Amino acid sequence: MANVTVYNMEGNEVGTMELNDAVFGVEINEHLVHLAVVRQLANKRQGTQKAKTRSEVSGGGRKPWRQKGTGHARQGSIRAAQWTGGGIIFAPTPRDYEVKMNKKERRAALKSALTSKVQDNKFVVVDSLAIAEAKTKEMQKVLTNLKAEKALIVTAEEDKNVILSARNIENVQTVAANGINVYDVMSHGTVVVTKDAVASIEEVYA
């Protein structure tokens, strides 16, 4: 099992912790990680965009002028795409962008993402994040002590003070252990996790 150093909020070492290899020491599958990120971004899309084709815009029921003899190019409708107010060629229509992955693939992708952070020494475990009052300055001080930039902060459960303290810091995001996902892990430089959150993740994914 991999051993990681446990820090306190001042950035001092206070011990070590063994990580479960079933979650944090798997063989990294980059393909599944890529699929998981694509899936998450695709599934966020609303797919509600719509524009009208020439059959849907109003007007244009008759030929604007006769076929020959006017000096104009021939036209069949004033609602063709080249006319102002005309329809859109290949207009976008509402669609579902959903990308599917089975449960085993999603779990394997998350384990791969977490393992990559551990191997890159970008997985920082803290004994606790006990912030008495919701202040951005306090959270910034903690992250500076931990040398964590562009951080994903993972707590065992939603902690209101942690969320409020971190939400105004650029490139910092908070998430509860049960909401951790591949995109958030991979899009942040450092993952800062409490000991309780590590236990929660291992309990679900080991």
Automatic annotation (TrEMBL):
Task: State one Pfam family annotation.
Answer: Ribosomal_L4
Could you give a single Gene Ontology term from the biological process aspect? translation
Please tell me whether the keyword S-adenosyl-L-methionine is annotated for this protein. no
Task: List, alphabetically, the SUPFAM superfamilies matched.
Answer: Ribosomal protein L4
Chain residue ranges for the region called Disordered = 43-77
A cellular component annotation (GO) from this entry: ribonucleoprotein complex
**What are the alphabetically sorted keywords of the record?**
Ribonucleoprotein, Ribosomal protein, RNA-binding, rRNA-binding
**Could you tell me which NCBIfam families the record lists for this protein?**
rplD_bact (TIGR03953)
Subunit-level organization: Part of the 50S ribosomal subunit.
> What family, per the record?
Belongs to the universal ribosomal protein uL4 family.
Q: What is this protein called?
A: Large ribosomal subunit protein uL4
Origin organism is: Blautia segnis
Quick one: which gene encodes this? Answer: rplD
